[in-house]
Amino acid sequence: MAAGFALVVTLARPTTEMDPLVLRSYEMELTTMNISTAKTPSKGLRGLKLAALALGTSLLLAGCAGKPPSEQYAVTQSAVNAAVSAGGTEYAAVEMKSAQDKFKQAELAMQEKKYDEARKYAEQAEWDARVAERKAQAAKAQKAVQDARQGVNELREEGLRQVQPVSQ
Predict the structure, then answer these.
(1) Mean pLDDT of 59-81
(2) Torsion-angle region of residue 34: left (phi > 0), alpha (psi -120 to 50) or beta?
(3) Which of 6, 102, 132, 164 would be a feasible disulfide site paired with 92, CB 3.0-4.6 Å?
């Protein structure tokens, strides 16, 4: 059985002083969204409900923020390793250094239990590493194209030498 969170929002019914067209539109929206409204006996309760909603939302967000970003950390570590393997340190030194620096900052933030900051640095490091990996792959491909062109030119020159008539 999967666990989940439920957020219950109670909206105050609009006043009868509203434009009838707006009132009808409001009721249609609530019907479409399957939200039931509750009458609020006083404006004080309305503020209390809003405060409870704000508190519940902040607790929900705080609960998510308290979890270490271990999955993102592992993905980032893998991306940095892949970039190094692809030749990122040679072909994309700036991006590689940026990725490694941000990864170190993510490690420090994890040790200090600043998980939001660690997640942010880990995500940035992942993307820097992916850019470094792509740049390294592109540079290697460019070098392979240059080598292939050079080989074609050498073959062409050799073929032209064999075709030229020998003068006597």
Answers:
(1) 79
(2) left
(3) 132
Tokens of 86: 């692809």
User: What domains can you pick out in the chain, each with its CATH number?
Assistant: 70-163 (1.20.1270.390)
Instruction: Please state, in angstroms and rounded to a whole number, the distance separating the CA atoms of residues 88 and 136.
Output: 5
Nearest alpha carbon to residue 88 among 133, 130, 142, 124: 133
pTM for the model: 0.55
At residue 150, does pLDDT exceed 70?
Answer: yes
Structure confidence at residue 8 (pLDDT): 37
Residue 88 to residue 90: CA distance in whole angstroms: 5
Residue 124 CB neighbours (<10 A):
18
Tokens of 131: 């850019």
Helices 93-111 and 115-163 sit at what angle, rounded to 10 degrees?
160
